[in-house]
Amino acid sequence: CARYPYAAIIVPGPVSRRVETPLSPAGLLRTELAAQRYHAGQAPFLIVSGGYVHPNQTPHNEALEMKRALVERFGVPPEAVLIEPHARHTTTNLRNASRLVLRHGFPEDRPLLITTDAQQSAYITGTVFAERCLKEMGYQPGTLGRRLSPFDVEFRPSRISLHADSRDALDP
């Protein structure tokens, strides 16, 4: 889809510390921001990424709850929201989203857009995140591009993200 500046918008999963709260306030903000970008024609798809993470033994999957909010609250068509339901933290959000777009033939000449809250965006663009990726996965899941706002950063996935770690039982 040449008319879009981005191949997709990645929305990393939020943490909800309360079992009775399916989507945290940060998650709701992330989905609202992503829906705004989608409705403004920034990308034809949104990729929501996150698993059953917090609190321990939560019945809520971050990606499913974000998709529900995007569709029911923000009017995004369900077919425009792709689910990556396995990520456990920000490193695997970006790795798994990279795998999804690479495996499904998204245009590689167009970057992705990561849209999230300001705190997570600052973390993603900081050295601590880059170091954590190297420590936990042994590589960077992609290359960060321009920081467009406190909430948005461009991202190009790396083919090395397709490598599955056989030592990690939770690596999908």
By secondary-structure content and strand pairing, the structural class works out as alpha/beta
Name the helicity range. 25-40%
Summarize model confidence as the mean pLDDT: 88
Low-confidence stretches: none
SSE order, as H and E?
EHEHEHEHHEE
Q: Please give the largest β-sheet.
A: 6 strands, mixed
Report the end-to-end length measured between terminal Cα atoms.
28 Å
Radius of gyration: 15 Å
Number of helices: 5
**Strand fraction band?**
15-25%
Mind explaining what this structure looks like?
The protein is α/β, with parallel strands linked by helices. 34% of the residues lie in helices and 16% in strands. It is built from five helices and six strands. It has a six-stranded mixed beta sheet with strand order 3-2-1-4-6-5. A hairpin with a 4-residue loop joins strand 5 and strand 6. Helix 1 (25-39) crosses helix 2. The radius of gyration is 15 Å and the shape is globular.
